[in-house]
Amino acid sequence: MIEDPESIDEFLAHGTSDVEEAIRAAAAAEITPRFRRLAAHEVDEKSGPHDLVTDADRKAEEYLSEALPKLLRGSVVVGEEAVHLNPATYEALHGDAPVWIVDPVDGTRQFVHGDPGFCTLVALAQGGVVRASWTYAPAHDQLAWAIRGGGAFLDGERLRSGSPEPGRDLDVATSHPLYTTDEQKRALFGLQTQGVRPRPCGSAGLEYLQIAQGRLDALAFSWEAAWDHAAGLLLVEEAGGVHLTLTGEPFRITGGNALPFTAARDEATARRVLDLLTGRADAETGEG
């Protein structure tokens, strides 16, 4: 741990191993022991039957909310469960202080059902810019991280998203229909076309990781919660990928984005998906 670091730059030059240690420790203490061992009283609904929270989510976020600010003087935490209890907490993303953005269990639905497709997401941002991120999949003991301008890595190996093979159908993960408005459903329906294989997404964090690995071509998501996207967006960027909203601008973690948005292995793929979401592809070909 650095004593009173002067800036995020100084911290990132020396302090990332402490972040990794805190994330692994939170998972070891609060998440892994509950995986496939959850009692009924440890699972609750938030907004509905498909929006779940567990004791693992709560306890892991509490662990990280205590550990992470100690690593960087003046930093604050925006965590999914804390924001659920007090939405005003989210406003820290608009402030000047460094912000740890935490999703303790991304893919809670999978976690509850004993599916290993979940992860812990942590991003460090300031002034609306994500500077570093960590994606940890406890069930597989895989850790991916990215530093802005410093690349993206998975268990020490450099990640490069590459480009899809010419002529091959695009594999695209999309928001689940349960979580989309009628207007967003119409936009996402644009992906139901020849040359594209859309499917409902799992854990958002793991979908971003698959793009950074070059195993998934793109995603199209319709919600803005920073804890779901901040870590993965930087991972994709540093692996060589691109993210764009419906207006053609990069996604902003502070909100106000035109949705749905896409993240993809390269710019050409991102723009192709964007054209399908906006209907421009049909207009250009005269189809539809």
Automatic annotation (TrEMBL):
Pfam families: Inositol_P (PF00459). It comes from the Bacteria. The keyword Mitochondrion does not apply. PROSITE patterns: IMP_1 (PS00629), IMP_2 (PS00630). Gene3D superfamilies: 3.40.190.80, Fructose-1,6-Bisphosphatase, subunit A, domain 1. Its EC number is 3.1.3.25. The keyword Ribonucleoprotein does not apply. This is inositol-phosphate phosphatase. It comes from Streptomyces macrolidinus.
